[in-house]
Amino acid sequence: xxxxxxxxxxxxxxxxxxxxxxxxxxxxxxxxxxxxxxxxxxxxxxxxxxxxxxxxxxxxxxxxxxxxxxxxxxxxxxxxxxxxxxxxxxxxxxxxxxxxxxxxxxxxxxxxxxxxxxxxxxxxxxxxxxxxxxxxxxxxxxxxxxxxxxxxxxxxxxxxxxxxxxxxxxxxxxxxxxxxxxxxxxxxxxxxxxxxxxxxxxxxxxxxxxxxxxxxxxxxxxxxxxxxxxxxxxxxxxxxxxxxxxxxxxxxxxxxxxxxxxxxxxxxxxxxxxxx
Amino acid sequence: xxxxxxxxxxxxxxxxxxxxxxxxxxxxxxxxxxxxxxxxxxxxxxxxxxxxxxxxxxxxxxxxxxxxxxxxxxxxxxxxxxxxxxxxxxxxxxxxxxxxxxxxxxxxxxxxxxxxxxxxxxxxxxxxxxxxxxxxxxxxxxxxxxxxxxxxxxxxxxxxxxxxxxxxxxxxxxxxxxxxxxxxxxxxxxxxxxxxxxxxxxxxxxxxxxxxxxxxxxxxxxxxxxxxxxxxxxxxxxxxxxxxxxxxxxxxxxxxxxxxxxxxxxxxxxxxxxxxxxxxxxxxxxxxxxxxxxxxxxxxxxxxxxxxxxxxxxxxxxxxxxxxxxxxxxxxxxxxxxxxxxxxxxxxxxxxxxxxxxxxxxxxxxxxxxxxxxxxxxxxxxxxxxxxxxxxxxxxxxxxxxxxxxxxxxxxxxxxxxxxxxxxxxxxxxxxxxxxxxxxxxxxxxxxxxxxxxxxxxxxxxxxxxxxxxxxxxxxxxxxxxxxxxxxxxxxxxxxxxxxxxxxxxxxxxxxxxxxxxxxxxxxxxxxxxxxxxxxxxxxxxxxxxxxxxxxxxxxxxxxxxxxxxxxxxxxxxxxxxxxxxxxxxxxxxxxxxxxxxxxxxxxxxxxxxxxxxxxxxxxxxxxxxxxxxxxxxxxxxxxxxxxxxxxxxxxxxxxxxxxxxxxxxxxxxxxxx
Lengths: 276, 674
Description:
Chain A: One of its GO terms (molecular function) is iron-sulfur cluster binding. Chain A is an alpha/beta fold.
């Protein structure tokens, strides 16, 4: 039995036993190399699940649909390690209850092979090496290094150019599991802190505010990157922030679900004397 | 007592009205007027939308100046006031009071700081004027959006906690208790008394330290308003001024305080006798069950768990067998915790002396007869290991020549500390004197950098050491101390003669630097006060608020703030008591209404603010519908605990928290006006 069949029957079993009310996975997409989310509520629907190397989206974002988990019932979800990290962060930020999430974990190795991940509860994954050492694909690191090598002026010009493409569609926000605020700061207009026009200032304001809001919280799934209709390499910004947080605080977002928000917690041995 | 006079309802500006702002430009004598063209500033602001009246004056903080402001408020029905003058830290209260007296809510005032942030830091008058206009304009835009606020009343628990039972802590406790308020005095050692109990005689009067200290120790423990907790440490401090919650760990003494009579039989019989006594600085020994010194208060021994044979091997219990009282010595005793509600905290945690081993060239630790000033105190003390005879630690012989090295650590940025330890000049003179009194043929030589003897009777005291007791002062530093033929050769320089000198000494006394307690920084973080680069605790203002910390309700006295002698420590302790009693003079405390509030509609309940809040002021709150079903959980700020720092506001991603007095709308308007 291939992994796809195995996961189909597991999803079907979860649904038929009544353990979960819904399984979120992947179904066939519009083209052969694209997958779209599939929400299965019956064992029969679970037979439509697809699991292959094209299943790259981070489905954890759908767990946050308004009212989905308010009845206290469980939901199953197909997650890669980055998605598992997202779930860890969401639990640590009180947006999910760990007992409500049943994980059908998988990993994509070498960009083509799909492997099963052991465990069903988030606690089964908390300290896994695969979570800690999750790094973005080599081409992301390569691109990031190229930008890091630039001078400050060159870098500013680079991002000015990239951000100038931004049409403020907020697809990056919609697809990101960390953007769960019911009202985003960009929608605050009394006062209007973030200008919504597509000029240099407005473009920087939005994209940098998002970068800061994701510092120490990004699971590095790359969803924003894929969602952007004008191909701004958003992932590089978040990758860089994650790197900063890791080197300054030895903190990897989503490593486990007991983490405290890195930018809002203090330690007795913090070197700054202004921390009382 | 209210912060401000109550505003009559009829004059209240609550509700919407067109902005009528008064702007008052202060010259501050020449402070502002010399660098800012105040005439231009007035002209520019007069034309600003919403400004009803704009005046300038030499000193608006003066009586006639304040009258002008009050009259303008009344005559023009002003809705807000901007005083363009100094920092709000200087005169915000002054002008808020003036506003309140004229019937305007005091929080409808803003101070535009055109002195510290403008005239003082710029030299070009045109540019400074332009900046002053912008600063003032932005505050006008802010004040237009100010809301009327009312001070928050919080109850005051009229019980004080004094941390540290040295002379400073004892004095503070006695003064507070003497005024009829309850005091909890916490000391981590087995006895109160602190460093002062280790001293022999005290400068500049040469009265015996124990003789003047022990009556105060006894008074403290017998005082009906003072609870003395020795061998105890403060574990946690929560809350805020008037309403602290303090958890104290009472370390297991293994001796029942309520039963022990202090007979000392257990100490006599304890077989572990060769433990270097901390109190004697290692010059004498103590047993495993011990009181640190004969006059200890309370006179109840403790068992040193790490040294006791029973705790190490499970056998012995000789002390228990000796003790005449049943169950008085209890090896099963555990640390216990007690919680107290406290209104004010006095920190008097004292000091330590610097470890002199950094001065390898002085041979401390290598030669037994190179000792510190504190060692000398024990040698000179009648209660000390030599019963007051100055004897060499190495062979117990009386030294003929004693060399004292001042600033052995102090005023030495390279190896020691940068600051002056303040007491060493005086105690070294005292040591030389005591030596002369006890050993008439002995001679003492003192290497010094300067003689700092500022204080009542201090200079006379050092002169007496030189003139009557023949202490020989050599101005210069010592480069090396080494042993030769049973003598300690002190090699140094006499800079007044410009010659190198060598003295063959029998004993060398180092005036080591005073440093903070080793755990001073950790403790400061635990209770929430600031400290300097060394770990001395920071006062709110060195000159004007020297005994308060930046944390309201926590006060400082003694050497934990900076090196201090006994008179200064005692004076400062009484000053803290005055502050505490001032706070305790009322049942309610009025606090600034600058507190945060959460917009419950948009709060996502991520609890980032809960974790970010340094004052634990944010709680979780359930929102339920009319049928009692849980809709969601949101953050909620306790206004009694909130200090208005704004950390939560900056942290909140959905922008759901706002700070009264500094709302987003106010700040935004301020920024956009620039």
